[in-house]
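User: I'm writing a short report section on ligand binding and want a predicted complex to refer to. Could you take this sequence and adenosine-5'-diphosphate and write out the structure as tokens? A short remark afterwards would be nice.
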Amino acid sequence: MRLRELGEFRFIKEVSKGFRYDDDQGIIKGIGDDASVTVIDERRYLLATTDTLMEGVHFSLDYTSPFVLGRKSVAVSLSDIAAMGGVPRYLLLSIGIPDREGIDMGFMRLFYKGVKEMADSYDVRLVGGNTSYSKDKLFISGTMIGEVEKDRVVFRTGARAGDEIFVTGQLGDSALGLSLWKKKDVAPVTDPFYREAMLRHIDPVPRVREGQEIARRGLATSMIDISDGLIGDLGHILDGCNLGARIYLSQLPLSRALKRHLQEDPSAISLPLAGGEDYELLFTSDPSNGRGIKRLSEELELPITPIGEITTEVEGVVVIDVDGKPINIKERGYDHFLSVI
Ligand code: ADP
Ligand code: MG
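Assistant: Sure. The structure tokens for the complex follow:
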């Protein structure tokens, strides 16, 4: 079977079938969450996550500088540690470097400057990696190690019927930014709000402190970071739990840039619903936590917005439009082999 028929997530499921864990191996979560969770001692769990950035798939050097690429290489894994409520500690970074004009020692120095800046801002230390020649594409693979107190960890599983669904920040800017980068040569973008969305795409902000506080204050029953799009990642929260979710279009937190873009092109509503790489946190919470979440949002000076609820209807993710009717969304998120958006 071709991988494009199977899809990324069925592929991962298929692979994982061959690897079972025994109770005495200290594995709390293996494949299937934002990071693996294993036992360190009576008080703490070890978190580990790995992410690849592939030139031509995840980034293009036409619009990404080596410095921001370095930052993003660390940010994407920080985001997975954040989604567990954890503290990132150590980074291993592997690179495959093509012998091509433009990718020289000057480029790599700037790349590592970006790596260091992002790692330093979260007190993470680079402790290893691997270097290889690559035939034509630059690729980067980062492994982040972190830790979390046992009673704080938040998994993708754990949502309950009646829970409210929240997201940090704003949705869709990264996908909007990407579409603007692709058009940039045709018409240069000068609008400052549009520039902001473009920056969000190449230089995302991982919500590390936010994830830790959500976990520490016991505000989430489940949590994931939005890397593959809201509908797709909310779908992962529902995986295997016999529950559904409703989200309301009118409640989605959108930037000024996206609102303006929507006026020109209403079909862009697929960007906040299914566009990837926002790296915001999506979590479910008991409705009684509303005030605590509002307070946290004020303290962090970041919107944390209720966008819907978990239901007992087993229809996956249902999107309700401004008139209260369910709408049919074709794009449901990013899949590396199906690549719908
Ligand atoms: P994220 O988007 O949070 O990085 P993914 O959707 O990429 O997570 O992966 C989902 C789960 O599948 C994770 O637990 C990840 O470690 C695991 N996974 C992904 N690809 C592989 C693979 N090739 N082999 C084993 N596990 C994998
Ligand atoms: Mg993730």
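A remark for your report: The mean pLDDT is 94. Residues 12, 15, 31-34, 51, 80, 227-228 surround adenosine-5'-diphosphate (ligand 1) (CB under 6 Å).
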